[in-house]
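Consortium newsletter contribution from the modelling node. Members have asked for a concrete example of what our holo predictions look like. Here is one, prepared for the 7TS complex that several groups have been discussing at recent meetings.
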Amino acid sequence: MTVLADLSLDVEQVRRDFPILARQVHGKPLVYLDNAATSQTPRQVIETLDHYYRHYNANIHRGLHTLADEATAAFEQAREIVRNFTGAADRREIVFTRGTTEAINLVANSWGRCNLKPDDEILVSQLEHHSNIVPWQLLAEQLGFRIRMIPVDERGALDMAAYRGLFNERTRLVAVNHISNAFGTINPVKEMAAIAHEHGALILVDGAQAIPHEPVDVQAIDADFYAFSGHKVYGPTGVGALYGKAALLEAMPPWQGGGEMIKTVSFDAGTTYADIPHKFEAGTPPIANVIAMGRALEWVTDIGIARIGAWEQQLLAHANERLAEVEGLRILGTAPRKAGVISFVVEGAHAQDVGLLIDQLGVAIRTGNHCAQPLLHHFGVDATCRASFAAYNTREEIDTFVEALQRVVTMVR
Ligand code: 7TS
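And here is the predicted structure:
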């Protein structure tokens, strides 16, 4: 007999951890469905920030005093938490950054700048957030390599036959997100990594939307690089991490210079660099935010990431069912494997108008291009409305959202 893990989630208990969910917007209870942009913050994370500034605020790695030691220990403990959460083998493979965007820019400007030659090619998917397109374009302008796009099919799933067909002896890197922020498509990154490696190319996975929603194991995926942001996984803004295989990080040059990233500095004898990961962490990092991001990942672990993912799948199914009632509504992105993100347009109602009016009813969704212009343009639209779910959302909130949407659509038509 197979014993299935109990994946039920006590959403009322989860909600009690989020003080912001008690607030009202325009006199209505807040229904927050903009989680793909930023998730809300549990009190445990807020308390971690508060505790840091009240009790042990100090610069790390350089002081020989109690507060500095305590801050350093907590900072390095957060690295261990991230290592464990992402399945990395070694904590030296975890570099703290400002977020996903900075992590990708780090790879482009360090690995990319010294490995990509004018005749080389890299593959970037059509599903990408601008932060996994533009850093490569900026570098390509300087170095002259070619960016080739991995196309999507009509459901917004990557065309895997086309992907295989794009490789040749000049392919050096694949840059792809694990889960698309615009459509929620879950990409087969493990299979994509295996194909990239067969061709001698590396793979950078943008995990900004995966880390909050499904168990991630960078070793099982065999990702060479994996990036994510704290503020999308119940942590603070201004912090994130890059996982990189130790051998790659060791061979890469620093990309920013400053304190913390050196061993010795000399005008005459040149400068030598710190070991990984510190080589990539120039200057004072956002210490409190790093520690609080670690606390956020512990909060997720306490609930169970698989449990959160399973709950969001239930919310997704419920929302799909309810949204089918809205006349003229079309969902963009219908891939067979999707996370809790729904992008849609409503005939005769501009996305921006829908977003503004629905906010008046207390419902926060996102409207616009979701920093994925190539994808939206491919589907013939400039903007969509997007609802995205987190652990604390409920079926009742989805009902409120759909009922509010019905009212708004009637108003603008
Ligand atoms: N990659 C993906 C897949 C994302 O969803 C985002 C942010 C980023 C990268 C950039 O992350 P940052 O933390 O460095 O800014 N996505 C969104 C969004 O969907 N709406 O607002 C931000």
